[in-house]
């Protein structure tokens, strides 16, 4: 559902649709006695067009192949990776995070011998990675088959 929301239904998944400002202006202009009618009259056509151009620059058409995923995997990620790639995600756009050194080493060996040798395996806590990297992700995929790790857990 998340991939569909970011691709096929992208324009329906935004907080405000492209024509939101126009709709608000039209709504308040219906009642001339409403003080907000005066305020929305201050919205010029130029300002509305600027909003619509900005919207278009942010909400660009996307395909599953262009979605970038931060993957917080469990010990057996192959099933999840198969599901993601079956939905059209590129393995090259999947970044798997593992902070446990032993599990990380096992994951590297597993990935290299699987049909997913191109996923990016990051030996770090995802929170630490976000603090130092400008990398942006479209989705953060959590595997809830086990407890979430924390630094306090030891």
Any idea what the radius of gyration is? Answer: 22 Å
Q: How much of the residues is beta strand, in percent?
A: 5-15%
The overall pLDDT, averaged over residues, is 86
N- and C-termini, Cα separation: 35 Å
Tally the beta strands. 4
- The low-confidence parts are none
Please count the helical segments.
7
Q: H/E element string?
A: HHHHEHEHEHE
How can the largest sheet be summarized? 4 strands, parallel
In CATH, what is the class of the largest domain?
Alpha Beta
CATH topology of the largest domain: Rossmann fold
- The largest sheet has its strands arranged as 3-2-1-4
Give the helix level as a range of percent.
Answer: 40-55%
CATH homologous superfamily designation of the largest domain = Vaccinia Virus protein VP39
GO molecular function, one term: methyltransferase activity
GO biological process, one term: methylation
Keywords: Methyltransferase, Transferase
Protein name: Class I SAM-dependent methyltransferase
């Amino acid at each position: 559902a998340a991939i569909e929301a970011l691709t096929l239904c992208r324009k329906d998944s935004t907080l405000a649709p492209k024509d939101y400002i126009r709709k608000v202006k039209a709504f308040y202009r219906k009642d001339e006695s409403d003080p907000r009618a005066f305020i929305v009259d201050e919205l010029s056509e130029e300002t509305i067009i600027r909003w619509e151009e900005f919207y278009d620059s942010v909400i660009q058409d996307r395909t599953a192949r262009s979605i970038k995923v931060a993957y917080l995997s469990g010990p057996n990620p192959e099933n999840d990776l198969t599901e993601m790639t079956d939905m059209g995600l590129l393995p090259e756009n999947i970044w798997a995070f593992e902070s446990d050194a032993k599990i990380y080493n096992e994951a590297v060996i597993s990935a290299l011998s699987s049909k997913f040798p191109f996923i990016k395996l990051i030996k770090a806590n995802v929170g630490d990675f976000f603090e130092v990297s400008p990398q942006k992700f479209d989705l953060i995929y959590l595997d809830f088959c086990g407890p979430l790790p924390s630094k306090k857990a030891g």
